[in-house]
Design brief:
271 residues; mainly alpha; 13 helices; 71% helix
Length: 271
């Protein structure tokens, strides 16, 4: 375990994230402003930045103020991605996931719009919005907490231990949107699976925070662009299909790259 991992405390990180979020969730109960994508509560914007704020506070205390700048510089650490082929996974895996969801829904006879008419400017604005949100979350989860967790546990176990509180952290927003316990259960499965995919990308791109942020962003933008009609968002209406496809994708990743580090591809030729 390196010196940075020794200093960092994932437990403190999670407790502080929830501690900073609780007052926001309380205020959220009395604020009913809609209009954001997927009916995300407005106060969720403030809650989204608690991982970033927490990471900066803890890094400044544990490693000094200079380390906070180093942490924030990692937001654009694309130079860490030595194997450029991983951009295919970062950029196109979200599209593959939503294509598979579409195919499953179509095969089940669900009514799906054939065209997606979204102005290019709207896509750009959505990308910027979700990129900022991904920065707010991943600087904390992947920039601060994941390395000490992987130093102690396997990549799979660290992903699960991180993914579960990450999912729980979304519960107030999910409940605010009116979803039931079954929806929450599927959402929890999907959220943990997404964390597995993010850690997989992180470990195979030289621990690039930028890679995680970009993948997270494209995945969220894809949720908005997924075909929907004027009254139904099928990703929301069918969480079992949506999140089970993501979970299956995570299982495939674990099978092919191994649970210990997510970096040893099963079918790599030995020289």
């Amino acid at each position: 375990m390196d010196s940075i991992s020794v200093k960092r405390s994932p437990i403190k990180f999670f407790l502080m994230v929830f501690g900073l979020s609780i007052p926001i969730w309380i205020i959220e109960r009395f604020v009913n402003i809609k209009g954001l994508p997927l009916d995300i509560p407005v106060m969720e914007i403030f809650a989204a930045f608690t991982p970033l704020v927490t990471a900066c506070i803890l890094v400044g205390k544990e490693e000094g103020k200079g380390s906070v700048k180093k942490l924030l510089k990692r937001i654009f650490d694309f130079s860490r991605i030595k194997q450029k082929r991983w951009y295919w996974a970062i950029i196109f895996l979200p599209f593959l996931i939503y294509l598979l969801i579409y195919v499953v829904m179509h095969s089940m006879g669900l009514s799906l719009p054939e065209k997606v008419n979204v102005p290019l400017l709207n896509v750009l604005l959505l990308f910027i919005l979700f990129f900022m949100g991904a920065i707010a979350e991943e600087v904390g989860y992947m920039g601060y907490a994941i390395d000490p967790m992987q130093a102690r546990w396997s990549a799979l176990k660290a992903s699960f231990i991180m993914g579960l509180p990450w999912a729980i952290w979304h519960y107030p927003s999910i409940i605010k949107q009116g979803h039931d316990l079954v929806w929450i259960a599927w959402g929890t499965l999907g959220t943990v699976a997404v964390r597995i995919l993010i850690v997989w990308i992180y470990n195979n791109t030289g621990k690039s925070l930028f890679a995680c942020i970009l993948f997270h962003t494209i995945l969220n933008v894809g949720r908005i662009l997924f075909p929907k009609d004027s009254t139904h968002n099928l990703l929301v209406d069918y969480p079992d299909i949506h999140y089970s496809v993501i979970a299956i994708m995570a299982i495939i990743v674990v099978f092919l790259w191994g649970s210990k580090t997510f970096t040893h591809f099963r079918f790599t030729r030995k020289t």
